[in-house]
Structure formats: structure tokens, C-alpha cells
Amino acid sequence: MHTVEKIGGTSMSDYVSVRDNIILNQNLDGVYRRIFVVSAYGGVTDALLEHKKSGQPGIYGLFANGIEDDSWLTKCDELHQQLQAINLELFGQTTLLDKANTFLAERMDDAKKCLADLQSLCQHGHFALDAHLATVREMLASIGEAHSAWNTAELLNRDGVDACFVDLTGWRADHHISLDERIRLSFQHINLEKQLPIVTGYAHSDSGLMSSFDRGYSEMTFSRLAVLTGASEAIIHKEFHLSSADPRLVGEENAVPIGRTNYDVADQLANLGMEAIHPKAAKGLRQNDIPLRIKNTFEPVHTGTLITGDYVSESPCVEIIAGCKGIYALEVFDQDMAGNLSNYDSELVSIIKRFNAHIVSKDTNANAITHFLSTNLKTVKRILYLIKERFPEADVNHKKVAIVSAIGSDMQIPGILAKMVQAVANENISVLAVHQSMRQVDMQFIVNEADHDNTVKSLHAALVEVHDHGRAICLAS
After folding, report:
1. What is the distance between the alpha carbons of residues 65 and 348, in angstroms, rounded to a whole number?
2. pLDDT at position 405
3. Residue 270 CB partners (closer than 8 Å, separation 6+)
């Protein structure tokens, strides 16, 4: 019996907390029989690819958008220096620092050479850069996890733990294999009774993880490891609890850590960009009856949130109020849409998919379709241009909004919608749209972006804070 555990980037940036609160936690039954999948240190993947929230280009973004521009090279050198500074902080002036910097330099120098060669090649008319960008993205992403995993394994060995670095990145591999095969080959000689594997969050596969999961690739590696090795539990260590709302909005004293919930709730959170785990990664755990636990690295005595497929709250209730800003409402009105809604919708979705914009929600009536998109303004303008080109007689509008959702494993509560509407009305908040599905696991309010925070606070006060939570922090044992 063993666990597979993933450590997030913010937690990884604090090695002492990772070692003492997670690896050597005295509440656990020994150090071994555990597999750790690690993320890159906080901010490193943003620098390698692009900033996850702002879209500010990293090495990949600069390289992809400027084939004759060497700004990516400058960014490479800057990041190399930053990673060396991390090494110095972790290892000090020791022989281990030299080993760490040598390992890092090999990866960074290889990547720079590959990009320079590709840049030169693609200046020839017969070679198109676009055909290689997916591979470039994967190669760059792998550097962050290789760096953190190698460092962590070495530090743990220094501190008396028999840790082993498991490199799933396929760096300099001479042939491509599937993700499952790579995992099996990497673990065939590892003895979990005596060794502690520290595994790269990025794993190379013949199909390319990032083409399907983009920045959720480490969660897919984590999920497949749990499934293939038959883990008794999957655990994600983050820098916060999975709580009833963002404590920074509703107050630390009002936010309630969630003790139990199910994968339906996790999927709703992921849809809003507040993922406990990527939905496709959760699918494998769910289908194989592997429970998922979310723990706070910095509160190791708390048992965290246990997520299973079959959990339903003892009585119907709202468990979480979650919201997201920066959503673009893209409304298309056309008189000819009436009676032909499905054809319009399929074409609109096809256009949106071309730009990889995430559809958070959607509403329709006889002659209008509104998609609520999580993307940036540049992408929205490109989508608008194609829609107007395809439907020249349509009236196309866009507006920046926020989505606030009440989520629970069982929300079949008579009158809950009226209660929610009253709560936001009391704060003079205008509701632009309301979505409620028959599955009864979430209700969404679309509001003006400026009303996001007040909507979260008002709904949390009306639906969560009114209850006695003396026993709400369920110990998920």
C-alpha cells in the first residue's frame, strides 16, 4: 500500500517546509511507500512558457512570436541566472552546488542550442516554425520540473532520506514511447519499501501531454502514476486549504476548510480555473476508485479535503462559493438563428476552438447565443473578426464580466435560487445571467466584473456563514 503525492510550485519553493511538513511528517507511517511528483519552483514555468494569468511571454512566447528576434535568448540567460540563484540558496557553497549547476547548465544549454538551430532552419522557406512549436513548448516545460526534482532528490539524500530522481522528461531519448510505458519502465527497478522516488511533473510521451492538457500536464503524470502503480490514495500538497471561499475575500474567520466532497465539485472548480485537479486527471482516479486528498503544506496536522466519487453531503447544502474574473461574454444575435440554433452553435464553437479559448459557460435563446470565455482580449478580437466574417448580418457584442458559482455535492434545496438572488439584490448587484443545471451541483451568477468580490461575500454570508460550522471541518480520515 502506497500513496502518490504531488507538490505544487509554491510549496516546492520552500524546501524546509516540504522536508519537515510533508516528507518527514511524524504523523505519517514512515518515510517510504510514497511517490512524489513535483512541480517546478514557483514562477519558473511562467518564465519558461508564459505567465499563466497575465499572458506575459516567457522564453516560449518570445521564441514563437519572433523568429528573427533574439529576445528569447536574453530571457534564457536571465532565467538561467535565476535558477542558479535558487541552487545557491538551497545548496550553499558546497560541492552539491557544483553538481546542481552542472545538471542545470546541461539542460539550459541543450535547449538554447536546439532553439537556435530551429530558428536558423525556419528562416529557410521550406520549414515552418508553427510545425515545431508544440515540441518546443514541451521541451521548455520539462526543464522546470527536471530542475526541481533533481534538486529535491539530492537535498533529501543529503538529509538522510534514500531518495531517487526519476526523470520522465525523455531528455535526449532516442525513441518515443507512450506515457504509460515510460512510467512502467522508470519504476520497474524501484523498491518503494526502501526508496523515495522524486518524479518530474512533466513526462514525455509520443502523443504529447501538453497538446491535451497544456499547463495541467503534471496532474496527468500524477494521475497516471497513481493508477498504474495501484496507489491507495492520491494526495496534492498546496499552499492553501480547499475552503468554502477565498479567505482573502470573506475573511479567515469565515472561510471553512472543506473536509469531504466529490469529483463533481472538483470538476466545477476546475471549470472556473480554480482547479484542485485537472478534470481529465481526476477521471482516471475516479474510474479506479482512488481517493484524492488536498492538503495544506503549511498546516501539516490538518487532514485536508478528501475527494471521492461517491460522496454526497449528509444534507443538501452549498459547500463552496467560487468565482473568476476576466471572463468575456461573447454575444451573437441573428434573426435567422431562430429554428437553426444548433448549426450556429457548432460553427461558433468551431471558431472559438481554433484559438483555444476556454468556454466556461453558455446561454441561448431563440436568436442569440452567448459564450462566456476565459481568455485574453487579443484572442477575443480575433474570434470576433472571424464571427463577423462568417455571419455578416449578425449583431456581435462582447463584455468583460465575472462568474460566481455556488457549488455543492448535493444542492437540491427548495428556494435556494430565490435566496441567492435576494442575497445579491440586498447588495444592489445586477445579475446579468443565471445558470442552473438539472444535476444540482452548481448555480452560476454572471455579474459585472466590478461586482465579483461583493457577490462572493454576499453569497457566502447567506449560504455558508449562516450555518454552525463547529463540526464543518470534517476530519477526512
Report:
1. 26
2. 95
3. 276, 277, 278, 279, 282
